[in-house]
Structures
1.
Amino acid sequence: MAAALREAVRSGRLAAGTRLPPYRSLAVDLGVARNTVADAYAELVAEGWLTARQGSGTRVAERVAAKPQRVPRKGPGREAAAHDLRQGQPDATSFPRAAWATAARRAVTAAPHDAFAPANPQGRPELRRALAEYLARARGVSASPEQIVVCAGFAHGLRLLFGGGVLSGSLAVEPYGLPFHRGILADAGVRTIPLGLDARGARTDELASHPGTSSRRGARAVLLTPAHQFPTGGPLHPTRRAAAVDWARGRDGVVLEDDYDGEFRYDREPVGAVQGLDPDHVVYLGSVSKSLSPAIRLGWLVLPPHLVGAVLAAKGLREAWTGVTDQLALAEFIASGQYDKHIRRMRQRYRARRNLLVMALAEHAPHIRVTGIAAGLHAVLRLPPGTEAATVKAATWMGVALDGLAMFRHSGSPEPHRDGLVVGYATPPEHRYRPALEALCRALPPLPDA
Amino acid sequence: MAAALREAVRSGRLAAGTRLPPYRSLAVDLGVARNTVADAYAELVAEGWLTARQGSGTRVAERVAAKPQRVPRKGPGREAAAHDLRQGQPDATSFPRAAWATAARRAVTAAPHDAFAPANPQGRPELRRALAEYLARARGVSASPEQIVVCAGFAHGLRLLFGGGVLSGSLAVEPYGLPFHRGILADAGVRTIPLGLDARGARTDELASHPGTSSRRGARAVLLTPAHQFPTGGPLHPTRRAAAVDWARGRDGVVLEDDYDGEFRYDREPVGAVQGLDPDHVVYLGSVSKSLSPAIRLGWLVLPPHLVGAVLAAKGLREAWTGVTDQLALAEFIASGQYDKHIRRMRQRYRARRNLLVMALAEHAPHIRVTGIAAGLHAVLRLPPGTEAATVKAATWMGVALDGLAMFRHSGSPEPHRDGLVVGYATPPEHRYRPALEALCRALPPLPDA
C-alpha cells in the first residue's frame, strides 16, 4: 500500500497539496485494517512524500511539480481590449450574487425529492409557472406553463426548432442579424431569405408577395426581433407586426420572435411581444443571457400548443442540458420579486449609460448620428459611406473593441450596406464606462470640412 | 392605462393571483406620474379586477380562469410503477441538498466577476483544478486541468467527440451497452462494431486481428466500461486493459473510457481508470449523474493533449450548455471534501442494498445466480434460457419496473443472447427498498422441478 501511494505521488497523479482522506474512512472503503493505512501514511510522512499537520489532515507535500505545466489556453474568444464596447453582454460585475445565492439555497432546500431524479425535458414546473406569470405581466405573452419548454438559451432553442425537425425548409429573416445564429441555421441546412428593412422595421409586408415566402414550397417561418431590431435598433411597426402574423396565419406558418432584450426599454412602456397577437402562430424565444448573465444557461420557448410535442421529441426523453438547480433558482428568483428588482436596477443603469453615450457624441462628434437608442444594450452610430472598416480599425488602436454593421449584414440582403458602428454599452464595469466613451470618441471620423 | 390593464386581466394574460409591481416603481419604469398608475390600480380594484391587501400588494383577483387548463403532459418517461428497479439512477432522496446549497452559496459569492461574463467552453478553472486533483486521487487518472473539458454529461461528451468531427468512422464497442448511447452514435453516422465478451470482460484482444478494427480503414477507437462492464457487471481484466491500450497506441487511435460508476466498488479497492496507463491514448469520460444526480448536468472529458483543441472547436466559442453556477458549486463541493463524504455515504448505503439483494435471492430464489455485484448501482440476475421476457412481464404485474438484458444487447453482437434481468438497486428511497425486493422475488421463475 505504501508503495502504491509513493508511486502516485512520484508520478504526479496525487498533486502537491492534495488532502488525503482520513485513514479511518480510507480503511473502511478499502476493506483493510486501520493500522495498514495508518502505517502507510506514517511511512510516507517519514519519507517526506506526505505532510501531516494538526487540523489540516494529511496532504501531499509541496515540492517541484512532477510535470511541466502546460500553457493555459485562451479564453472564450474575447481578447483583452482596454475597452469592450462589443454588443450583447451585460455588465458581469452587476450579477446579483447575493440575491441569486439566496434564491438558489432556498430553492434547492425546498424542492421536492423528484427534482433530483432524471428531469423532465420540458423544464421544472416551478420555473414554467413563474415564467408564464412573468412573461404575461412584463412582455404581454399569453401562455400557460404547458406551452413553455425550457432550454439552454436562444441558440439551443433555434437548434431544437430546426436541427430537431420541428421546422424545416427555408426561413425568412431580417437583413441584419447575429452571424452566430445564421451559422446555426446553415448547419441545420436551412436556407435564409433576407427581407428588406426600412424605418418601420423589417419588410414583413413583402412576405405575402415574395416568391420565397409565398410560393407553395416557400418559407413558412420568419425570424424577427420585434422589440428591438438586432442590431439596427428600431421596434417593428404595428402594421408590420400585423403583416407578419397575418402571413403566418394564412399559410399555416409561424413567426419566431427573438425577444433578446425586450425588458430594456428606456423612454416609454416596453413594446409588448408579438406573441400576444396570435399565440397559435408565434414561437416566442427568451433567455436570461441579457437580463442576468450568459453564464446562466437558461432560455425558454413559448410554443403554439400544436408544436409542444415536436419540440419535446427533439429534446429527448430526459433533460440532458439544463441543470435543475438553476431552473429552481430562477423560479424562486422570479417568484420572490428579485428578478423584477434586478431588471429595474439594470434598466436605470443602462439608461444612464445610453444617455452618457448620446451626450458624449453630441459634444465630441455632433456629425455622427446615433440610432436605435430607445431600448436594448447597444446603439448604432451611422458613419459616412466607406468609413466603417477604417473606424473599427482606429477604435482597435485606441484600445476599443467593437464591431461594424457589416458583420451583421446578411450576404444576400437586398439592402445596400449602411456604414455604422454597433456600440454595446452594457459590458464595461461602471468605473470603466466613461473612459471607454472617451476612447470611442477619439476613434470616430473627424467632422467633414465645411 | 386602466383600459390596457383591464384587457390584460380579462384576456387571462395577467393570471389570477399575479402580483403587480408597486405603483411607484411601475411609474418610474413607464415614465409616467405616480398618480396615473395609482389611479389605474384604484379603478381596477374598484371594478373587482384587482385586489389590494396590506402586506401582499396588489394582485389580480381570483376568479374563473379565462382559459381552460390544458392536460399536463407526462413526465420524463419513467411511468409510475410501485417499485422502480431500473438501472442507472441514484436515490433522488439522498441528494445532499444542504451541503450542495452551502457550496453553491459560497462559490457564487466568492467567484471572480468574470464568472458571470460569457464562459470559456473548456469549463471553469476552479472546477478543472478540483477534478484533476480528485480524479487523480480517487480514480488514478493522470491529467492536468488543461486536458479537461467540462460538458453536460456523458451523452454530450459522446456528441462532442463524434458529432463534432473530433473522431469519425467506425467504433468498436462492447456487445452490451446503453441503447441511448448507440442511438447517439447512429445519429452521428458512426458504425459500431461489437466485440466479444467473456469472463475477463470485452474481448479487446480481438482488436488487433478483427478486420473491422485492424484494417487500414477500420475503427481507430473503442468504447469501453472498464471499471464495471455495463450492464453485465465485470471489471475489465488487466490483460484486456493492456490489449486495448496497445491497440490504440499501435494504430494512432484512442480508448474511450466510460467511467460511469467507478467510485462505487464495495469489497476491495476501486479499480483504477485505464486512462492512467496511457493518458495520450485514452479519453476518460465521467459525470455526476450516478454520484450526485442526473439533474445536475455536469460531466467531463479528460483528453489526450492533442485532442483538446478539436473538442473545444466542436464545443464552440462560448459555453452554450453548462451553467457556471453548477460548475462553481461542484468545484467547491469537491474542494471542501463534501464530494468524498457523499460518495462514502452512498457507497455504504448501496453496499447494504446490494447485500440485501444477494440475501433475498439466496433465501427466496437460490436457483437464480446473481452477477456483477462487486461494484456499481445494479446487478444482473441470470435466468434460464427463454424466460427473460416472461419474467420482465411478471415483474410488471408485481408492480416492479426493470429491464431484461436483451434491450442492452447490440443487435450485431457475435455473442449468443443470455437471459437475464438488470436490477438497479439505487433508485428506490430507503424505506421502499425491502418491499421492492420482496415484489421482485415473487416475480422470478420458480425453482425447476428436481
2.
Amino acid sequence: MGVINAEKSEFNEDQAACCQISVRRREPGLEEDEEWLILCSTQFLTGYYWALFDGHGGPEAAIIASNYLHYCIKQKLEEVVGAVTEASPPMHLSGRCVCDSDPQFVEEKHIRAEDLVVGALENAFQECDEVIGQEMEATNQTGGCTALAALYFQGKLYVANAGDSRAILVLKDSVVPMSCEFTPETERQRIQHLAFLFPSLLDGEFTRFEFPRRLKGDDVGQKVLYRDYFMEGWGYKTVEKADLKYPLVHGHGKQARLLGTLAVSRGLGDHQLKVIDTNIEVKPFLSCIPKVNVFDFTLHDIKEDDVLIMATDGLWDVLCNKEVAHMVRSFLAENRTDPHRFSELAKCLVCRARGKKRDHQWMLDDGHEASYDDISVFVIPLHNRGED
Amino acid sequence: MGVINAEKSEFNEDQAACCQISVRRREPGLEEDEEWLILCSTQFLTGYYWALFDGHGGPEAAIIASNYLHYCIKQKLEEVVGAVTEASPPMHLSGRCVCDSDPQFVEEKHIRAEDLVVGALENAFQECDEVIGQEMEATNQTGGCTALAALYFQGKLYVANAGDSRAILVLKDSVVPMSCEFTPETERQRIQHLAFLFPSLLDGEFTRFEFPRRLKGDDVGQKVLYRDYFMEGWGYKTVEKADLKYPLVHGHGKQARLLGTLAVSRGLGDHQLKVIDTNIEVKPFLSCIPKVNVFDFTLHDIKEDDVLIMATDGLWDVLCNKEVAHMVRSFLAENRTDPHRFSELAKCLVCRARGKKRDHQWMLDDGHEASYDDISVFVIPLHNRGED
C-alpha cells in the first residue's frame, strides 16, 4: 500500500488516524509440544489502518477514538491470529479437534479466515466504545463521534462503518461502494422497534410513529399517513392526542433526527447524552456496531490510479459518488508525475466541497450551496509497486 | 391476468388460495359536500390474489389462513382505497390539507401509492395472525404456517412473504426473484438480539450464542468459534458451562432450528407453541410481518410465456431458480397449443421435485434424493391478452 493523505477544512470536530497494525504470531505447536522454547519463532502479520471520526457535541470522543480504535483492533486481531492464516479457521483456537466432526461443521457454516477479521473489527468497535465511555466519565466530558475504519490485511480490504461517513473504491472501470450510512432514517425500523419493546425509554415525551410532518391540534380525529416499526409501506391512522408528541425519528434527509437530538444512529460515545430538558437517554437507541464490507484484492487487477476514498459527510452532502469518481480520475490523469498527487487530490476534493465565498455565502462552482460541515478526506492509492 | 394452477403431492400440510379482490371506491366529495347521495357513484378497483400456506404441527393454521388472508387484504386495501389511485397519496385520507406544506412533506418522503398497498399487505398479515390466534384458541387447536401471497393490483405485482416459500418471475430474458426466505439462519441476528434484550425468554434452558456444533463437556475451558447477535463475522470465546446449553439457533441449512423446534422464523399462528417439555414460548421469536417486493408491469414488455412461479419449500429444496426457469421455458416452448399448458407445467414441476420411487427411496432424475416434503406450485401466466 502507499501514501496516506488527509485534509480538512478549518471547522473542527473531525479526527483522522492511520497507522500500521502488526499482530504477533507464534509458529503453532513448537512451544508446547517439544518444549524447545528457544525454537519458538515469532512472526508478525502486518496490516494497514486508516480511520475518520466525525465528532458531535465537541471533539473529545473523536480524539479518544482516533487514539484507541487501532489499538482495540490490534488486540482483537491478536486474539484470533492463530487461526487467521488458515483457509478454514479451526473450531478450537489451539488447532486440536475435540471432536472428529469439527472441520465438517466449520465447512458447513462456510466459516472463512476473513470472518475472523470481520468479527475482530465488530468486537473492536464495541471495546472502543467502552473505553470512550470510561474516559469521558473519568474526565467528565460529553459527546460522541461516527467511525469509519479501513483495514488492509492479508490481501483484503475491510471497511467498517458506524455513522454517516462513506468509503468508495474508485477503480479504472468501476466505482465500488464500501460502506452504507446509518442515520435515523436508514435505521428507523430498528429504532421504532426498540421503542415498541421498551416504551418507557420515551418517558411519555415522544411518539414512536412516523408521520410525514409534525402533527398539530387540527389533525386530531383525522386519518393521516403514518408508519410503525414493522412497516416499510405507509398506512393511514386516526390521529389521537398522544400522536401530537414529538416523533422519535423526525425530519427528512440531513434534517432527520433521532429524539430531536442526533443526526446519526450509529457511532461511538454519547454515553451521557440526554434529550435536552429531559431524563431521556439517547444511548439505548444508538449502536456502536459497524457494518463491515470486504474487498478481495487477489481477485482484482489493481491499476496504478485506483484509489480508496474515505470522507466524512461534509464531502458527500454536496458531491455524489459519480462526481467524486470523475474528479479523481481526471485529476490523476492530469497529474501523472507529481509525487504528492494523492495529497493534492485530497486537498482538491476538500476545496471543491467547501466552495468559494461569494458575498456572505459559501458556494459550489455549479452555483449550489457548499458544505458548511467539517470535511475530511483520505485518498489512499491501492496499487502495489512491488512493496507488500 | 389469466389461468391459475396449483398442484400438490399426496403429503398434506400445504394449502393454496386464489381469488379476485374487489375494493369498493366512492367518487370523493360528492356524498358529503353536496348531499346528493343518489349521485354518489360506486366504483370497484379489482385485484387478483394467489397464496400458498405451508403448515406445521397440523394443517389447521394453513386452512384458516387460506380462508382469511384475502379478506384481511381486502379490508386493509379498502381503508386506503381513497388514496391509492393518486400518484402521491394525500397526507389526509379525506384529501383536504390541514396545512399548506402537506404535499411538500409527502413528496420529500417519497411516499407513493404503491407504499399504501405495501402497508396494507403488512397490516393484513398481522391482522390475519390475530384471527388465527383467536380461531385456534376457540377450537383448542395448535400449529402454524408460512404465508406467501401475490397480489396484482393497479398494474403492479406485490409479493408478500413470511416463511420459506419462494416466488420468482420467469421472463423471456431474465429470472427475477420476488421473495427471500426467513429461517432461523437468515434471521439469526434478530432472534439472538431478542434473547439478549429479554434473557428470561430462554428460561435458562438455551444459550443465545451460535457455535459451529453443539458443545460438549470436553470443550469447557477451550476457545471455540462463536457468534453473538451483533456479529456477522466469527470470533473465539472460552467455553463456560452455560455454553453447553442447547443453542437458540442451531443446525445448518434444512436442519437449522429455532429453539430446537421450528424450521422457519416468520409465519402465521403458533400462538400456543412451546418448546417440548418446557414452558418456553416460541411465538415471541417469530414474526408475522412479510417482506413485500413490487414489480411494475407498466415498465416491462411482458411476453406470452412469461410466468410467475410460486412454490413451497418442497420444490426449492431440490430445484434451484435456474433449473426451474429452464424447465418452465422448455416446457412452454414445446407445448404452445395445449389450452391447459400452465396447469400441466405446474404438475410437471411437482412431479420432477417428487421424483420416482426406486426400491424404497424417492429419487430425482439426476440421481439425487427427491423432496420428501409437501410440494405446492402455482404457475401464473402474466401476459395480458387484451383483458384487464
